């Protein structure tokens, strides 16, 4: 991989690889001030993997996780804390997650998983090598190589489920869900059943999470709540307020004022 793009965002250093990996967004985060944080893990339209590149700067507040945290589309309410964070984050699209992780997205919902429980012994070896270097270029190359080694399984979502997921994501959660089964010649019951079995939530819930994630990123750019709500088809500001509160435990105003949320959004816009 070529040298990554790096920028400062407040006290954070944020990096992204120059070369994209299909189906995977990757970024690096380093808190130069060595501060602390505690946040609830929100749902999102990807399998999220966060690999701690130090000796213990990230940890859930419950459960056993050592250095690599994996969360699915619909994580159970859980909180994560950190101090002096220095990590690599991956957002793995649900369509490629079975091949790269060896399990369907549905099996990754619930409490955060330890990366070793998903990737096996390779997780510890990868993390040890990430800790050895502070170079984002080298870190992204190491993670990219690890992903390439894993992309050998034939595990896939059903083509119909994968297509439905792509449409929901591309439409930012505003796709007419009721019209999807007919596209595949499936009954509504079969479509709902297959989608939930592989993705982990029903199609309407998936669309709700996709739209919420878009709203969260909009709020993090300091745009007004009314503007974000209107753009994403929420009934009104109260509707958006309820979703944000339910998924994060915080109000839209609190999200907009918290620099930690804007740091995450910044990572995936680096040219």
TrEMBL record:
PROSITE patterns from the UniProt entry: HTH_ARAC_FAMILY_2
Residue ranges of domain HTH araC/xylS-type in the record: 151-258
This protein's UniProt keywords: DNA-binding, Transcription, Transcription regulation
Gene3D superfamilies: Homeodomain-like (1.10.10.60)
Keyword Transcription among UniProt keywords: yes
Protein name listed in UniProt: Helix-turn-helix domain-containing protein
Organism: Nonomuraea salmonea
């Amino acid at each position: 991989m070529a040298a990554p793009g790096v920028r400062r965002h407040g006290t954070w250093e944020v990096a992204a690889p120059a070369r994209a990996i299909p189906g995977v967004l990757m970024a690096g985060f380093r808190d130069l001030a060595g501060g602390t944080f505690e946040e609830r893990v929100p749902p999102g339209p990807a399998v999220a993997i966060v690999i701690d590149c130090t000796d213990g700067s990230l940890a859930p507040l419950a459960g056993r996780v050592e250095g690599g945290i994996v969360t699915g589309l619909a994580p159970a309410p859980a909180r994560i804390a950190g101090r002096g964070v220095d990590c690599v984050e991956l957002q793995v699209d649900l369509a490629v997650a079975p091949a790269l992780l060896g399990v369907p997205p549905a099996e990754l919902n619930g409490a955060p998983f330890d990366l070793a429980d998903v990737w096996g012994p390779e997780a510890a070896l990868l993390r040890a090598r990430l800790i050895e270097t502070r170079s984002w270029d080298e870190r992204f190359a190491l993670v990219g190589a690890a992903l390439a080694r894993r992309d050998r399984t034939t595990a896939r979502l059903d083509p119909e489920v994968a297509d439905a997921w792509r449409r929901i994501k591309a439409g930012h959660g505003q796709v007419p869900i009721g019209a999807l089964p007919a596209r595949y010649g499936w009954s509504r019951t079969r479509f709902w059943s297959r989608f939930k079995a592989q993705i982990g939530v029903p199609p309407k819930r998936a669309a709700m999470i996709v739209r919420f994630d878009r709203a969260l990123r909009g709020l993090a750019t300091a745009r007004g709540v009314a503007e974000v709500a209107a753009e994403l088809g929420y009934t009104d500001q109260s509707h958006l307020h309820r979703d944000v509160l339910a998924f994060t435990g915080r109000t839209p105003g609190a999200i907009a004022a918290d620099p930690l949320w804007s740091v995450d959004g910044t990572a995936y816009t680096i040219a």
